[in-house]
Amino acid sequence: MGVAARLRRGPVEDAWRTFAPEPGSRDGPLPAHLVGLTVVTGMVDAFSYLGLGHVFVANMTGNVVFVGFSLAGAPGFSLWASLAAIGAFSAGAVAGGRIGAGIATHRGRLLAASAAVESAIVLTAFIIAAVVGPPFAGGSRATLIVLLGVALGIQNATARRLAVPDLTTTVLTLTLTGISADSRIAGGRESKVGRRALSIVSMFLGGLIGAIVVRGSSPALALAIAAALLAFLAASAWARSRTSTGWSTPR
């Protein structure tokens, strides 16, 4: 689709086409799946921040800032936890890169494989969290941070390789910037507010649902829901990738 056609779209149609792409769409069903992964990000980060003590497993910008807070002696932050999350996320990104290199010719199969691996890791974290129970401390806390950091590193590496515009599944700073800087008020021509707003809303909903569950009677349930959603996305991506079409070709 050309720029002129995209400019004629309103925000509602732009968002709708994320879930119901037009025939011949460059990214096919990938955007809808990445919206689902963004919900997972919100849920898992809600569990890590609220359940594991002021540490993110997906938002590495926050962890870098937390390292500074810890070194400055700010209460409530753990230097080792933030560094462990950064290290685990980086290791997961390496693993995600290897998965992408091994399935470089079909974006649908890449998404299916990485989501399946991520689901298995998050499910393992759920089992540990359910057996140990809150409050998580010592070895159990470290294990959960590492497992979830690896899982989200894989997810982010995969999203980067898929290269679907405006759907990184984690980083919203550039998304918010794009909505404002590319708007007509700012002199831009194509803010794509519909799809970008979907990314923000999906992260919000994931965080909201995750926080409600974590603050309830069973914090580990947030991980079970995330693992189930990942398994569904993996199965859906695999079903859609049985045939090679234009959207499956790497960008």
Note down, in words, how this protein is organized.
The structure is a single chain. The protein is mainly α. The chain has a single domain (30-241), classed as Growth Hormone, Chain: A (Up-down Bundle), CATH 1.20.1250. The chain has ten helices and no strands. The longest helix is centred in the middle third of the chain and has 26 residues, at 107-132.
Shape: globular
The end-to-end span amounts to 15 Å
**Domain count:** 1
CATH class reads: Mainly Alpha
- In the CATH hierarchy, the third-tier topology is known as Growth Hormone, Chain: A
Helix and strand layout, with pairings?
Layout (H helix, E strand, L loop, with lengths): L2 H6 L2 H9 L10 H22 L8 H12 L7 H24 L4 H26 L5 H25 L10 H9 L11 H22 L6 H20 L11
Characteristics of this structure?
Growth Hormone, Chain: A, 251 residues
Quick summary:
The protein is an all-alpha fold.
